[in-house]
Amino acid sequence: MHKKRYAFFSLVLTGALFFAAGCSGGEKKPIATVGEAVITLAEFQESLKRIVPQDHATDKEDLTAIKKDLLNQLIEEKLLLAQAETAGITVSDEELTAEVDGIKEEYGEASFRDAIAEKYGDLEKWKDEIRNKLIIRKTVEKLVSGQPPVTEEEAKEYYGANPGEFSATERVRARMIVVASEEEALRIRKGLTVSSFAETAKKVSLSPDRESGGDLGFFSRGEMPSAFEDAVFKLRAGQISPVVKTEYGFHIFLVEGRKKGGKFSFEEVKGRIMERIKAEREDSEFRDWMASLKQKTKIEVREELL
């Protein structure tokens, strides 16, 4: 669970921020029209508050840029939802339930409910936004589904042209157990062994990685929260850490292996390269398609309301 995926302990439900389901009362003044669709000022302000809380100090120039980016995202959402409606793309109740249950499992019940209450106030409103997110995801996937597969030759060419991307510093493979209290962590650590670590993590850890026995995989410095790295990189392979307190809870780490720095072989990174090339192609196709759609659609923005 690398740093960028360590959202389990935050109260921000990534991916649900920019999908606004609509305005529930309040100011109906349009800030933008997208074809026949309208983005109201209240809708825009509601989305903005989820990204930049009202009591959060933000540089004026930065805030202006955030507002413009958000409005552009909302405009693109309206365009995509209109395309989905034309194409008959929908999301079933079963698909929505599966997505919601997956998010609940990732964040934990308490963190999930706190985040919804703080940023949306209403679970059903949030579910409407998740439904829109799924519809948009389906629409984009359908758009880019015609891309030809990436060949191994293309991956080798990319590997040779970008040698700096495939060098690594020292890496460690570690497992983690995290609990809420120091007392519980000390009790667990007392009887913990290398052979029992994974099973114990499955039973007691609060981290989503508990399902894989707390396995964090291999990582280098800079990929994890610094408190984790400070503890883990001091350990030898096969060594268990003492209890480590961080802002996320009370942790116990096991280092299962270490790898010296060096260059990754092509076989080690081939899959990652092919995924990157595929993603770059799809993004380019989507951006070109979106630019063309914007040109064909009458879009009016009242920038004075930003």
Please provide a written account of the structure.
The protein is built from ten helices and nine strands. A four-stranded antiparallel beta sheet has the order 5-4-7-6. The longest helix is centred in the last third of the chain and has 31 residues. The N terminus is likely disordered. It is α+β, with helices and mostly antiparallel strands and 306 residues long. Helix 2 crosses helix 5, helix 3 crosses helix 4 and helix 6 crosses helix 10. The relative contact order is 0.14. Strand 6 and strand 7 form a beta hairpin. The radius of gyration is 23 Å and the shape is globular. It has two domains: 162 residues, Porin chaperone SurA, peptide-binding domain (Triger factor/SurA peptide-binding fold, Orthogonal Bundle), CATH 1.10.4030; 99 residues, Roll (Chitinase A, domain 3), CATH 3.10.50.40.
Describe the protein's topology:
Elements: E1 30-34, E2 37-40, H1 41-51, H2 60-87, H3 93-107, H4 109-119, H5 123-144, H6 152-161, E3 167-168, E4 171-179, H7 182-190, H8 197-204, E5 215-220, H9 226-232, E6 244-246, E7 249-259, E8 262-263, H10 266-296, E9 299-301
